[in-house]
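FORM 12-B: Structure-to-Sequence Request
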């Protein structure tokens, strides 16, 4: 379930962005300020609020180590703040003096990207605080950006609805035209990447078309990048203004003009929760990197802090409704969770149909003695010809549930994300390293001590040896192993 922990009322105008570091939460507002809170008890820091911008602050982001905070504003600057003192450490003036709408750090801390309302992009060398490269897209505003986990590419989203991929030399690698009709509002790469013949990333984007989309971005070569749409999520009824992945990439949250916050299981795009506590548009959302905590900001001038409890997977439920609903993994396969689907008996299949609300077809399945192996081989055609299910809508619903069943961990063995990349064993104490990957704590500590602090996955230097507990992944592994 999801519970509302507290509500922060520190801003005097719309909240535009909220972001976590390992120990802090920062929020920025049209009231020209940035508020900074302790992520432990959400008490405001002594140096908060931060005042240095001449106009409203559109976006803020922490450096990966959490030492610095960047904020950008209509005043055409991106300010760097020292989070130990609250003082301004540097002022970066955007090329062309255009209002700056968005900013983002690369995961390796080498670069800071900022995007302007005139379509300009600036890539700053963070170490020297100097401009590395600049570029532009004509006749549009840059309103969203995100770096890939490897820090070698970044994506920008525009008010025209395009998503564009760039390398660090500002070479334009790919354009996904009309990714969102009427404009992109936010985009974010998942923290992990996958190697399967080529390097793959997951990207979430949302926009004025009221859609949240999940893309697979594949880098075939240095100059060949492809994007494929994996899921289109339609749970919200108005423009979706913000989206964010959890630190383990397993959950995805979004905020909308319809005043709702939605939480999804990210890989399959399954709706877990719909939260309804804000009084106006939800403009910002963020996951804590150290625990199952979500922050959401709104035009109602408030920031809500939510806790995602263990077992949270009730489809489309509000916090109150979900209290009596078991987790998706626990309830969907309650009677047969210890079996592979192909091993299900006829009674197991009938039990599954009942749990999925498919009682209308149970007689057809019963009369044909359908077991698990036969269930997995069904098609729309055989549902009609062999089981004589005439309704197209019912056939479509049955096939959708079967496809969800095929994707579930029950029939796929141990999910790969539950295995440590070093030991290839199920993790007991997963932690997130500086490269964005999760490892078994003992294994990555041993690796760091003997492998010159390089990433086991990318071979690039680890910028820090700090390891962050991945509690969300640990809970997911515990739920999965309990059901085996």
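FORM 12-B RESPONSE
SEQUENCE OUT:
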């Amino acid at each position: 379930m999801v519970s509302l922990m507290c509500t922060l009322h520190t801003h005097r105008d719309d909240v535009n962005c909220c972001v976590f570091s390992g120990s802090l939460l920062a929020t920025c507002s049209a009231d020209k300020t940035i508020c900074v809170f302790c992520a432990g008890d959400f008490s405001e820091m002594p140096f908060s609020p931060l005042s240095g911008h001449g106009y409203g602050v559109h976006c803020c982001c922490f450096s990966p180590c959490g030492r610095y905070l960047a904020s950008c504003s209509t005043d055409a600057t991106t300010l760097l703040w020292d989070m130990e003192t609250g003082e301004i450490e540097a002022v970066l003036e955007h090329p062309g003096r255009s209002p700056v709408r968005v900013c983002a750090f690369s995961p390796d801390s080498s670069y800071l990207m900022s995007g302007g309302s005139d379509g300009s992009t600036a890539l700053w060398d963070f170490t020297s605080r100097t401009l590395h490269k600049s570029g532009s897209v004509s006749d549009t505003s840059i309103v969203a950006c995100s770096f890939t986990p490897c820090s070698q590419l970044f994506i920008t989203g525009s008010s025209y609805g395009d998503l564009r991929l760039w390398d660090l030399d500002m070479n334009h690698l790919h354009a996904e035209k009309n990714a969102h009709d009427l404009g992109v509002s936010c985009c974010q790469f998942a923290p992990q990447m996958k190697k399967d013949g080529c390097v793959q990333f997951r990207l979430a984007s949302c926009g004025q078309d009221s859609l949240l989309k999940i893309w697979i971005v594949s880098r075939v070569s240095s100059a060949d990048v492809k994007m494929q749409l994996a899921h289109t999520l339609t749970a919200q009824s108005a423009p979706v203004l913000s989206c964010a992945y959890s630190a383990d990439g397993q959950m995805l949250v979004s905020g909308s003009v319809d005043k709702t916050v939605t939480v999804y299981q990210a890989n399959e795009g399954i709706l877990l929760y719909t939260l309804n506590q804000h009084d106006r548009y939800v403009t910002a959302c963020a996951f804590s990197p150290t625990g199952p905590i979500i922050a959401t900001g709104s035009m109602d001038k408030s920031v809500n802090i939510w806790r995602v409890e263990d077992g949270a997977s009730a489809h489309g439920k509000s916090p109150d409704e979900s209290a009596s609903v078991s987790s998706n993994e626990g309830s969907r396969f309650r009677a047969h969770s210890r079996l592979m689907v192909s091993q299900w008996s006829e009674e197991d299949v009938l039990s599954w149909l009942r749990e999925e609300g498919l009682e209308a077809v149970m007689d057809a399945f019963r009369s044909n003695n359908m077991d698990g192996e036969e269930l997995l081989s069904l098609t729309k055609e055989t549902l009609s010809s062999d089981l004589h299910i005439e309704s197209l809508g019912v056939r479509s619903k049955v096939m959708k549930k079967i496809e969800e069943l095929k994707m579930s961990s029950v029939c796929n063995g141990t999910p790969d994300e539950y295995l440590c990349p070093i030991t290839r064993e199920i993790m007991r104490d997963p932690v997130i390293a500086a490269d964005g990957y999760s490892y078994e704590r003992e294994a990555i500590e041993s690796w760091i001590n003997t492998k010159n602090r390089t990433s086991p996955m990318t071979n690039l230097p680890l910028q820090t040896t700090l390891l962050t507990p991945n509690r969300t992944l640990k809970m997911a592994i515990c739920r999965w192993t309990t059901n085996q």
